[in-house]
Sequence to fold (183 residues):
Amino acid sequence: MGIGKTPKHVPKWKIANMHWEPATEADWTSVVAMNAAEEAVLSPMSREGLARLVGWGGRLSVCRAEGEVAAFVLRFPDDSSYDSPNYRWFADRLRRFTYIDRLVIGGAWRGQGLGKRSYEHFVRDARARQCHWLCCEIDLEPANPPSLALNDRMGFVEVGRQRYGLKNKLVSLRVLSLDEGLG
Fold:
């Protein structure tokens, strides 16, 4: 199955068969296509752009389900050379953090609890790396209600806002303290 060929409804039992793993270059076509489908609330990303992000220290992982990419995440450690204004905002203020640049769940896999389970995985991974913070930003203009709701449920709190980019997007800059329990 490829992008857009997944069933409209995925039974919840299939979520148990999903797992996160480091992406390979063979996954990049799926990652770029999934990103393109969500560009309204993400920055554009070509294959060359993805290579640049990985080169800056980005950790690209995919969630596999039945052999296909059901979701992907791009994370950066606090010592990355990533030049994103949102990443830099956190880097100027925090130490020992993991920044989630983007998490994309394929349309057919949404509403099955994968977002929550993914964040639980990211928290465990960041704690294992002795990070104190999990950081991200969520679009407010244009709004991204599903991401805002998930972040609120997981216990992220807004610590700032900023506008950036050619479209002058407004984002909510958010953190989750890893020194506390998960919400």
Residues 12-177 form a domain with the Aminopeptidase fold (CATH 3.40.630.30).
